[in-house]
């Protein structure tokens, strides 16, 4: 059966057909379920939604339909956060999507007070399951409006995987993204930095002294993002992973 699955996936244009076939066959409980999964994948459904989970820093993160699929490059944001604040006691995963970033930070830090938030009800439901093992709390609302007020001035790591695709470039994304993921998780406004600006403006008041806020962005947006952080009183620098093609702006509170 494996060979026929590989052929079907390769014919559909799946670049890593062999790897995907192994994953589907390992996940499916029956041949009929495997055939149904292959059919959905051939029709264009993202692999993570076909099997129901994504791997993120060694964790199996449940991904429900309509929820942003965590990207491997975002693991770099988690690495930077753990390196900058290894002793953080309070962590916030803003624009949390599936909650992958929060779950990974909690796994790396150990005992931590974890809060996650998203404006999308589907994301909130999904994230609750993924951060439950860490005792995480998930809130629904628009950025900081969702968070308990008692967190102001206490956050050691504020990870905000904000949408940063310019509005007129949404259609250029792979169909797996713009057809199956919520627009609110992708669209960052005219230049892609609308939500980042809001995080930079309001984030400092939530940080503990020396706390850090980390935001993923693109290479060409990075200079503007750095300036935005600096103008809001943060000491900012850019971390880059050429391997993952990841660009993370890090802002540290005084």
TrEMBL record:
<dbReference type="Pfam" id="PF05175">
    <property type="entry name" value="MTS"/>
</dbReference>
<dbReference type="GO" id="GO:0102559">
    <property type="term" value="F:peptide chain release factor N(5)-glutamine methyltransferase activity"/>
</dbReference>
<feature type="domain" description="Methyltransferase small">
    <location>
        <begin position="60"/>
        <end position="148"/>
    </location>
</feature>
<dbReference type="InterPro" id="IPR029063">
    <property type="entry name" value="SAM-dependent_MTases_sf"/>
</dbReference>
<dbReference type="InterPro" id="IPR050320">
    <property type="entry name" value="N5-glutamine_MTase"/>
</dbReference>
<keyword id="KW-0949">S-adenosyl-L-methionine</keyword>
<keyword id="KW-0489">Methyltransferase</keyword>
<dbReference type="InterPro" id="IPR007848">
    <property type="entry name" value="Small_mtfrase_dom"/>
</dbReference>
<protein>
    <recommendedName>
        <fullName>peptide chain release factor N(5)-glutamine methyltransferase</fullName>
        <ecNumber>2.1.1.297</ecNumber>
    </recommendedName>
</protein>
<keyword id="KW-0808">Transferase</keyword>
<dbReference type="InterPro" id="IPR004556">
    <property type="entry name" value="HemK-like"/>
</dbReference>
<dbReference type="InterPro" id="IPR022446">
    <property type="entry name" value="MeTrfrase_put"/>
</dbReference>
<dbReference type="GO" id="GO:0032259">
    <property type="term" value="P:methylation"/>
</dbReference>
């Amino acid at each position: 059966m494996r060979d026929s699955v590989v052929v079907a996936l390769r014919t559909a244009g799946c670049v890593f057909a062999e790897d995907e076939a192994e994953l589907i066959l390992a996940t499916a409980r029956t041949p009929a379920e495997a055939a149904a999964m292959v059919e959905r994948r051939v029709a264009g459904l993202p692999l993570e939604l076909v099997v129901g989970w994504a791997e993120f820093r060694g964790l199996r993160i449940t991904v429900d339909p309509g929820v942003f699929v965590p990207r491997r490059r975002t693991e770099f944001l988690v690495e930077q956060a753990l390196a900058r604040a290894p002793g953080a006691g309070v962590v916030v995963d803003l624009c949390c999507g599936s909650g992958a970033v929060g779950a990974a930070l909690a796994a790396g830090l150990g005992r931590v007070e974890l809060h996650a938030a998203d404006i999308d009800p589907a994301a909130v439901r999904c994230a609750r399951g993924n951060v439950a093992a860490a005792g995480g709390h998930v809130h629904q609302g628009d950025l900081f409006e969702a968070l308990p007020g008692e967190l102001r001035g206490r956050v050691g790591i504020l990870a905000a995987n904000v949408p940063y695709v310019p509005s007129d470039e949404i259609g250029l994304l792979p169909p797996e993204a713009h057809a199956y993921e919520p627009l609110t998780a992708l669209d960052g406004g005219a230049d892609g930095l609308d939500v980042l600006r809001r995080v930079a403006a309001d984030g400092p008041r939530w940080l503990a002294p020396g706390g850090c806020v980390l935001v993923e962005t693109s290479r060409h947006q990075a200079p503007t993002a750095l300036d935005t952080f600096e103008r809001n009183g943060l000491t900012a620098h850019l971390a880059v992973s050429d391997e993952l093609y990841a660009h993370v702006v890090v802002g540290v509170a005084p």
